[in-house]
Amino acid sequence: MTKEQLFGSGLHKDGRADHDGLKMVLHRYIIDAIEESGKNLLEDSRHALSQFVTDRVAEYVSRLHLAISRYEMERLAEEIVDELTGFGPLEVLLRDSAVTEILVNGPHHVFVERDGLLSHSDLRFIDDHHVERVMQRILAPLGRRLDESSPMVDARLPDGSRVNAIIPPIALDGPCLSIRKFRKDMLKSSDLVAMQTIDQSIYEFFQESVGKRCNILISGGTGTGKTTLLNILSQLINPHERLVTIEDVAELQLGHPHVVRLETRPPNSEGHGEVKSSDLIRNALRMRPDRIILGEIRGVEVLDVLTAMNTGHDGSMSTVHANTAQDALLRLETLVGLTGRTVAEKTLRQMICAALDVIIQLTRMSDGRRCVSEVLEVVGVRDDVYVTNTLFRLDKRTGFGFVREALNPASDKLRRDPILNANG
Prior knowledge:
Blueprint: H1 3-7, H2 19-37, H3 46-64, H4 70-85, H5 90-95, E1 99-105, E2 110-114, E3 117-121, H6 128-139, E4 152-156, E5 162-166, E6 176-180, H7 189-194, H8 200-211, E7 216-220, H9 226-234, E8 243-247, E9 259-263, H10 277-284, E10 291-294, H11 301-309, E11 317-321, H12 325-338, H13 345-355, E12 358-364, E13 370-382, E14 385-394, E15 402-404, H14 412-416
Parallel strand pairs: 7-11, 7-12, 8-9, 8-10, 10-11
Antiparallel strand pairs: 1-2, 1-6, 2-3, 4-5, 5-6, 12-13, 13-14, 14-15
Helix pairs in contact: 2-4, 3-4, 10-11, 11-13
Organism: Pseudomonas helleri
Family: Belongs to the GSP E family.
GO molecular function: ATP hydrolysis activity
């Protein structure tokens, strides 16, 4: 029995070549050919493997007299080489600098983000096993495991890109993969102004806030640019200061001369060895930091970071997921409640207000543009209610430009520290 009879020819019933079917047949055909050759071509150069695959594809097409163009034949050969040596259909997306995020929802649905907008790609995998093979290929050099006992993985690629993988039975419609690509060229404040994320007056306020060592919380939904803005603010910090960063997956590119970068660690296969954000915050306090930058507040570390901000580490920064600046305050309360520690509401709100000076709210517009929607000053607590002061807000009528709000003359904090006065 020939290989063609065993595997099928990759043809439609009418004799036309089916790209996906033919690719699957050729993939198995070439794997057999590599084994029969007795050469370890997968360890050889890409050029040698590419030449071998191209020759075998041409041989197969010629033998079956398939109606396929030279361009399509070369494309098939290139995709198979990618599958054998790299990350399969993802290879071309990872090389595309315009792609900022890759989302795989099962084998037949691959989405990409360009300029803040998601679109459906015509690339796809052969089946669930194909997706899982690529996942394992991505994770293997990282020493991370993805199997039934550990069906979710959050990791960082060598180039800094963030990858999240999840497989059945947790993922009901097939294995899912999310890759947030690492930006090699750091954005600058001028880029944010050009993209209308902020305007010049907001940038000048940020300069003063960072220079005066205000504790800043950046709030927003997923993909609104919280980490990007955190990077921008860090560029405004005095280069003589010592920074300690703490992240679950290291994404920050601070561009600062004195940075100590710490990263949490998940438990090993025996359930031991986990290092949490709260552990790293407590350790960071012993490292003589001038400022602590926590990538994201998402759990029990909330009390530790609030304590750090209240005990001499002014100028610290972090991010949180929330829909509005006011919601960010309530989100912190909720996270404290999830720690299991009992803190009186009045005491908790006073602690939060003492820790935070400024909340910057980010949003993503319908056209994909990310921008600051509000800058809020945290004034204090009065009658057990947060007293806040909106310094800037996005002009909701146009979606462009910012409105500088009138400041509350009763703000004690503004009188004590007039640098926070956005009106000068």
